[in-house]
Design goal:
By secondary structure, this protein is mainly alpha-helical. The protein has one domain: Cytochrome c-like domain (Cytochrome Bc1 Complex, Chain D, domain 2), CATH 1.10.760.10. Helix 5 packs antiparallel against helix 7.
Amino acid sequence: MKTLPIVLLASLALAACSPAGDTPAEHSSADRAAGHTSSSAGIPAGRADIGEQLATTKQEATGQACVDCHGPSGTAPIDPSYPIIGGQYHDYIAHSLQMYRDGDRSHALMASQAKGLTDQQIADLAAYFGSQPSPLRDLSGL
């Protein structure tokens, strides 16, 4: 029965090392809707209004805009295999776009779409799509 004390001590140690106010419950959809844009992706703060403009602008490389495939506000993809990105965590969107841009994640259209994006543009797109109402739900309230 030594396992329980070890697990308890490890949990307490991790909690003590975590920044105050940085619990998953505090990163709610309300925070995302309010434009909370700090990022573990190492990108600047995003601007949702600029992201909305970028999301509707056709890219020269592909002739497509984000909303052409992911739907208005990113919640109605034209193909069931395309993800819903509206309401998704902005960090997830930012990391994904960085990976497509840098060649660490592959998809023919997305790699071409993201190739020319700057970190600021990625942050702006992530802020916009992350702030949208969405049918996506997490399990934090269960």
